[in-house]
């Protein structure tokens, strides 16, 4: 591995992750905002451990990413996962926050955007999450467009997600991805999925049928020098989904409650996720956990297939 010494000086790559990267074996990055701000305790820490195990069971090494004490951490200990799951002072940090968090020696849980960037700095090309950020509803007035979309435009990482939550504007999100040259590819379906639900009402711009095909797409993209990420959308299994028709009224309610509180910016996604758990009596949390596990499984297989191009 070839990492510039100034960067290496602020980075801690877990020995197991380092060994895998050094040998060209498959590694899957995992984010930490989903732990600190995406789910309640103790389900969050349990999910984090189980997802790492699923990555291992499917032939790859997990690397959960965060910033702790100002250091870029790639691969966390069980104690560090517990800290992220319980310490309310840990901030949700996106790419714009990285310099301050590092310079001032703070703790931060990384979003899709900042996890992608750190993964890429360490040479990790495949990343599993739950759902990515996107264009928020009403963005034509608020300009609230997740930095996740901009990071996908620039950083060479494949993000495996269950699509985009319908708390966002899915149509506008797909438009921004197209403008930025980001392939949005659905695995095994012609319809782009909506996180809790398999159906979104939007046709997927692109699709592939297998993880091996997805890995070939990554190789083709990057070998052509087409920099930037790939969004690989992986629909939640039918037995775990909340159908779109059941979900939509819950989402409307959560959006209404958020407007009443006047929440904006980085607080909106954590609020909406938490409110939807309350409104659904915990059902959406089960669904969220099921889809993250499903994404970890697929990401490990994509990473294993992609590693064959890098020998
Ligand atoms: N979607 C989820 N759970 C999450 C997130 C998204 O189902 O926890 C987090 C991710 O870290 C994502 C971030 O990058 O929310 C997006 O936040 P924003 O909309 O503020 O960009
Ligand atoms: Mn935002």
TrEMBL record:
<feature type="binding site">
    <location>
        <begin position="146"/>
        <end position="148"/>
    </location>
    <ligand>
        <name>substrate</name>
    </ligand>
</feature>
<protein>
    <recommendedName>
        <fullName>Pseudouridine-5'-phosphate glycosidase</fullName>
        <ecNumber>4.2.1.70</ecNumber>
    </recommendedName>
</protein>
<keyword id="KW-0326">Glycosidase</keyword>
<comment type="function">
    <text>Catalyzes the reversible cleavage of pseudouridine 5'-phosphate (PsiMP) to ribose 5-phosphate and uracil. Functions biologically in the cleavage direction, as part of a pseudouridine degradation pathway.</text>
</comment>
<keyword id="KW-0479">Metal-binding</keyword>
<dbReference type="GO" id="GO:0016798">
    <property type="term" value="F:hydrolase activity, acting on glycosyl bonds"/>
</dbReference>
<keyword id="KW-0464">Manganese</keyword>
<keyword id="KW-0378">Hydrolase</keyword>
<comment type="similarity">
    <text>Belongs to the pseudouridine-5'-phosphate glycosidase family.</text>
</comment>
<dbReference type="InterPro" id="IPR022830">
    <property type="entry name" value="Indigdn_synthA-like"/>
</dbReference>
<keyword id="KW-0456">Lyase</keyword>
<feature type="active site" description="Proton donor">
    <location>
        <position position="31"/>
    </location>
</feature>
<feature type="binding site">
    <location>
        <position position="92"/>
    </location>
    <ligand>
        <name>substrate</name>
    </ligand>
</feature>
<comment type="subunit">
    <text>Homotrimer.</text>
</comment>
<feature type="active site" description="Nucleophile">
    <location>
        <position position="165"/>
    </location>
</feature>
<dbReference type="InterPro" id="IPR007342">
    <property type="entry name" value="PsuG"/>
</dbReference>
<dbReference type="Pfam" id="PF04227">
    <property type="entry name" value="Indigoidine_A"/>
</dbReference>
<feature type="binding site">
    <location>
        <position position="144"/>
    </location>
    <ligand>
        <name>Mn(2+)</name>
    </ligand>
</feature>
<feature type="binding site">
    <location>
        <position position="112"/>
    </location>
    <ligand>
        <name>substrate</name>
    </ligand>
</feature>
